[in-house]
Amino acid sequence: MNSPSAVSPFARRVFLANLCAQIGIVITGGLVRLTGSGLGCDTWPRCNDEQWTPHGESDIYTFIEFGNRMLAYVVGAIAVAAIVVAWKHRPVRKEIRYLAAFQLFAVVGQAILGGITVLTDLHPAAVASHLLLSMFMIGSAVVLYERSREGDGPVRPLARPEIRTFALVGVGVLSALLVVGTIVTGSGPHAGDEEARRFDVNVDQMAWLHADLAFLLLGAALALALALRVTDAPAAAQRRVWWLLGVLVPQGLIGYTQYFNGLPEWQVSLHMFGACLVVVTTTRILFGLRERGEVGEAENEAGDGLPAAAAVPGPSEEAVAATRY
């Protein structure tokens, strides 16, 4: 039986579209940087001192940068749609409403931060903050999507408390990996403009630190997969960890390949897409280790393209009380 609190399949598709849009703007933002178009529009919110949009004499870099700005409006429109479907859902689910509203606030904040990035002539700290906020927005979009698949009942853990804590540690490792990754990019050749400042660090040392953190995350994922296996956790929870491993391995190979081949643009872009997928799959693991009310499996699989967590009998009341997010 479906939980009466579960949102409609249409609403979940809107939330999934919001997630895809957040990933898409990361990719187009990377295109701006990789093509050296970061200052194609050299001011904000105008494109230049005289006009809001590119004019006939503008070069390709201006149109690339302006196109990325326009995509922000598409992301914002999808965020508004997410708010509408969240507010229309009955019975009222405040957490879903708040998560949906945050999507739009984050889009506005990201636009302002993007303007600061341009006005500071692509200062590496501003560029890094811009990307990190995007990754946080992707994670929050996953949370919105996953919570919409759950009910509002008490948290019922599907794994031992120490395993759930270990999964949270993995999120911390991912956060450090992303921060160091932005420093690597901010000290490398793809600054978005030839005259842009770079971080004054040794790029090779930062790249190897980034690789070390990637290995740490990979090891944590393998350990988590083994722990879930030996404790007979639900197969659906185990599959989410294997999704993460399936993303981490090729992501690592791309990282090494781009490093030893001089950071070709197409490989860097592919690596950025892989980073988005790592954020998605890591965040989904947290929700695979619990459930909150029953959502019918058939409804979960109704065309949303993501594997669903299967419902299993709940544990004892003592386990529920000991483990909550």
Description:
Helix content is 68%, strand content 1%. It is built from ten helices and two strands, in the order H-H-H-H-E-H-H-H-H-E-H-H. The chain has a two-stranded antiparallel sheet. Helix 6 (203-230) runs antiparallel to helix 7 (235-260). The protein starts with 8 loop residues before the first helix and ends with a helix. The model is unreliable at 294-325 (pLDDT under 50).
Mean pLDDT: 84
What is the strand arrangement across the widest sheet? 1-2
Fraction of residues in helices?
55-70%
Regions with little confidence, pLDDT below 50 for 5+ residues: 294-325
Structural class designation: mainly alpha
N→C terminal distance: 25 Å
The DSSP helix count reads 10
Short description:
This protein is mainly α and 325 residues long. The chain has one domain.
List the helices and strands and how they pair.
Layout: H1 9-34, H2 60-88, H3 94-119, H4 124-149, E1 156-157, H5 161-186, H6 203-230, H7 235-260, H8 265-288, E2 290-291, H9 297-300, H10 317-322
Antiparallel strand pairs: 1-2
Features:
2 strands; 10 helices; two-stranded antiparallel ribbon; 325 residues; mainly alpha
